[in-house]
Amino acid sequence: GAVATAVAVSVLATRLWRSRRVPGSVCVAVLGDLGRSPRMQYHALALARHGRSVSLLGHLQTSPHGDVLRSDRIQLVPVSELRGLRVGPKVFQYVLKVLVQAIQLLYTMLRIEQPSYILLQNPPGLPGIAVAWVACLFWRSKLIIDWHNYGYTIMSLRHGINHPLVQIAKWYEKLFGRLSDYNLCVTKAMKEDLCVNCNIKAVTLYDRPASYFKETPLEVQHHLYMKLARDYEPFRPRTESVGLNMERSAFTEMDGTNGHVVKPRGRPALLISSTSWTEDEDFSVLLKALEGYERSIDEGVKLPSLVCVITGKGPLKDYYNRLINELHFKHIQICTPWLEAEDYPLLLGSADLGVCLHKSSSGLDLPMKVVDMFGSCLPVCAIYFECLHELVKHNENGLIFRDADELTEQLKMLFSGFPTLEGKLHHFRKNLRESKQVRWDESWDQTVLPLFGQNE
């Protein structure tokens, strides 16, 4: 610890000696996996689009989007992830991890070119907010916090709201949150809560879909299905090909002579959900709903087979995979792939229905996956929580459910008569097409761009 502190201090001294400000450069930081932090990637791309040089700082477990990797204005600054320390009591391990993270993060932040701004994602904010504030003091930079949620409410899912660590995290978040120069947040409800409970003034920047979230052309869908069929059984055709020149997936057929692609009438419906496999999403709700759907088919209700794709990485994935493997469905196939960044928007733009099980730990943030689904004109069934109405309009662009039974009934209603064009699914998709949704770039330019320009 003493050696690391001495190194950090010596770097500070060296930087003070030869620091040079790069006009307009910005550090965009997240103490998490950059590849799974789309909003922070979007911030970096928006800044680069406006001529800023960006240091994008975070863990490099999964690859960021190709646009980020290709940008000559964005430099990736890796922060190595600390594995849990196994010495002493749990509280000691946690405190030690935070201290080591703080030194590591400060050291990394002081090695980049001097930024005019540090834009930090919260959560995780411990120790990120305090470290970014110290770095800003050193650089004479401005600190902007982008509030996605509260870190202490996520901790409370595991430990309970009255746990001492949770209470310390709450105090820390409120205290250091007030030291920022500007604040962004994801909903009006969070803006209000920050103002009332933390005395923090924030600007609401709703998550918006990037331009590459859109409906996927049929030929591109077919190529995607054929690619996924190499690794995942549910994308393979149920029966052998009838024509010599026919190339088939579970959902599409391509005539090899003229390249013409069609969706056959008896195809299964494609249902997609994405998750970070954490405590704030209870996937047993979806599994129970699918059991109810399967039971209805067995009882003679005319419904299509389902392919259910759940994408994402996270700590509870193995647990849910075990539950999935115990289910023996005849009419439903489930797979849990990790998709490349470029394939995920294509799959959303190809699916028939999205399902969201995100329940906000604070009740104040909105699921970005639904934003992306709506950008792809994909109707959604989403589980209820307090401010969900800011995004999902029940019976307009999707449906809101409260439990597994209600989701079963919604799936049966939406897929009744599938794949004909009539019915609610078509109605929701039509509404999404006509809603002319604001895209990220447009929203960012209106809301965030004015903040950059007050410190040059």
TrEMBL record:
Membrane-related topology note: Single-pass membrane protein
Pathway: Protein modification; protein glycosylation
GO molecular function annotation: chitobiosyldiphosphodolichol beta-mannosyltransferase activity
Bilayer-spanning residue ranges: none
Pfam hit, one: Glycos_transf_1
Enzyme class: transferase
GO annotations of cellular component type: endoplasmic reticulum membrane
EC number(s) reported in the record: 2.4.1.142
Family recorded in the similarity comment: Belongs to the glycosyltransferase group 1 family. Glycosyltransferase 33 subfamily.
Protein name (database record): Chitobiosyldiphosphodolichol beta-mannosyltransferase
